TrEMBL record:
GO CC annotations on file: cytoplasm
Pfam families: DeoC (PF01791)
CDD domains the record matches: DeoC (cd00959)
Protein name according to UniProt: Deoxyribose-phosphate aldolase
EC number(s) on file: 4.1.2.4
Taxonomic source organism: Actinomyces glycerinitolerans
NCBIfam families assigned: deoC
Tagged with keyword Transferase: no
Similarity annotation: Belongs to the DeoC/FbaB aldolase family. DeoC type 1 subfamily.
Catalysed reactions, as listed in the record: 2-deoxy-D-ribose 5-phosphate = D-glyceraldehyde 3-phosphate + acetaldehyde
Length: 217
């Protein structure tokens, strides 16, 4: 079983509630640093974030629906990077996924990848709303577009969040070429361990304290 520190090191400690205040984000940063998480993940309106050395700053793009013009997503991502974001988690255009227009899905992702440059791009596919075939196809489109990670969920979609099955399928599709981030509904140590076992290399969680308390030191 991985230790508390090992799991913390792959966690994006997340607060994406639209009503979150600057003071709450400051608390998130302090807590992330204390717990040893990989990053904090915040909304774009919270940037820039003053984070200590070693704690990365992630943000979201086209969130939570993905139903934005590619040019708008690219502009948002570029602005976030300019304000210090190390990583950007973008939401795919689910309309295009459901229409199986994967050439357009790839172009949407590529526009954001070009905007973030060398910064890390994660692509949120909203796996609970997709069929297995759609999960595979959108993961392939993300890889072709130059993304660094595929990510299960926003945590805001009524279809639900991460599942072991989706993570396994995403990992089988991208192999070791891309990272896989599990996010949405991961609230306990058992949840986190199941996602890691399924192939997740990053976890997006808000229940970080509860998760880590359930793990051995």
């Amino acid at each position: 079983m991985p230790t508390r520190a090992e799991v913390a090191a792959i966690i994006d400690h997340t607060l994406l509630k639209p009503e979150a205040t600057g003071a709450q984000i400051a608390d998130l940063v302090a807590q992330g640093a204390e717990l040893g998480t990989y990053s904090v993940c915040v909304s774009p309106n919270q940037l820039p974030v003053q984070a200590p050395a070693g704690l990365h700053v992630a943000t979201v793009c086209g969130f939570p629906s993905g139903a934005h013009a590619s040019s708008v997503k690219a502009a948002e991502a570029a602005d976030s990077v300019a304000k210090g974001a190390d990583e950007v988690d973008m939401v795919v255009n689910l309309k295009l996924v459901k229409e199986h227009d994967y050439t357009a899905v790839e172009a949407d992702i590529r526009a954001v990848k070009e905007a973030v440059g060398e910064k890390l791009l994660k692509v949120i596919i909203e796996s609970a709303a997709l069929t297995d075939d759609e999960i595979v196809a959108v993961c392939r489109a993300a890889e072709a577009a130059g993304a660094d990670y595929v990510k299960t969920s926003t945590g805001f979609h009524p279809a639900g969040g991460a599942s072991v099955h989706a993570v396994e399928l995403m990992r089988a599709t991208v192999g070791d070429r891309l990272g896989v981030k599990a996010s949405g509904g991961i609230r306990t140590a058992a949840d986190a361990l199941a996602m890691i076992e399924a192939g997740a290399s990053r976890l997006g969680v808000s229940a970080t304290v509860a998760i880590l308390e359930g793990l051995p030191v």
